[in-house]
Amino acid sequence: MRSIKAIFTKQAKDMFRNPMVLVQFIIFPAVALIMTELIAKSNEDIATNMFVTMMAAIFAGMALVTATAGVIAEDKERKSLRFLVMAGVKPHEYLIGTGGFILLAGLIASIAFGLIGVFTGIEFARFLTVMIMAAAASIILGAAIGIVSKNQQAATALAMPIAVILGFAPMIASFNETVAKAAGILYTQQLNVIVNDFSANFTKAITVIGINIAVLIILFVLAYQKKGLRG
């Protein structure tokens, strides 16, 4: 527990020293707020929460994947993981500490999205549930990418196309029924479905997201078995 707390604190300090990572947790809620206030609320043809929905899905699918992959790949590149392992920090403690802080940062951003969307009661609870589940899925995926990558540049190159698909597929699905059907297996699309219509099948959405998480955990385990955390 002490090691997890130490890694959690280390990650917090690293993020505040790295504006490129920190800005990802600020820019998407900020864009959602600006576009909602300046465009959506003044245009009756645009749903009030359209930009909140759009930015939330992009944030969950893009920012968290690339941030996690970059953080782990950077630690591998700097040989930080080697020293942590030598100091007795177990790999799962490192991942829980690092992923836990990113998840907390994602929760704060998710609350911001919910406030911008003026969600209340059961809507707010459902929104946070699917957002946190989607964030967890992205963090696990990002961790797998970070582990298999030799350095931060390689992690970014691998994570970005995957993150773009996860982040933008729901937006495209809103305008294309064929894409919507194909994207239905993605956790970001299920997030999009719920936030667009809180009367949608919530059980189905969290089930699909749960299956995504299970598959990504298996992917992470395979990546770990192949590469480990020593860099």
Percent strand: under 5%
Tell how many strands the DSSP assignment holds: 0
Classify the secondary structure makeup into a structural class.
Answer: mainly alpha
| Tally of contiguous helical segments | 11
Q: Which stretches are low in confidence, meaning pLDDT under 50 for 5 or more residues running?
A: none
End-to-end separation: 23 Å
Number of domains: 1
What is the typical, i.e. mean, pLDDT?
85
Task: Spell the H/E element sequence.
Answer: HHHHHHHHHHH
Put the structure in a nutshell.
The protein has eleven helices and no strands. It has 231 residues and is an all-alpha fold.
Molecular structure report:
The chain is an all-alpha fold and 231 residues long. It is 81% helix and 0% strand. Helix 3 packs antiparallel against helix 4, helix 4 runs antiparallel to helix 10 and helix 7 runs parallel beside helix 11.
Topology record:
Blueprint: H1 2-17, H2 19-22, H3 24-38, H4 50-77, H5 80-86, H6 91-116, H7 121-148, H8 152-173, H9 177-182, H10 187-196, H11 202-227
Helix pairs in contact: 1-6, 3-4, 3-6, 4-6, 4-7, 4-8, 4-10, 6-7, 7-8, 7-10, 7-11, 8-10, 10-11
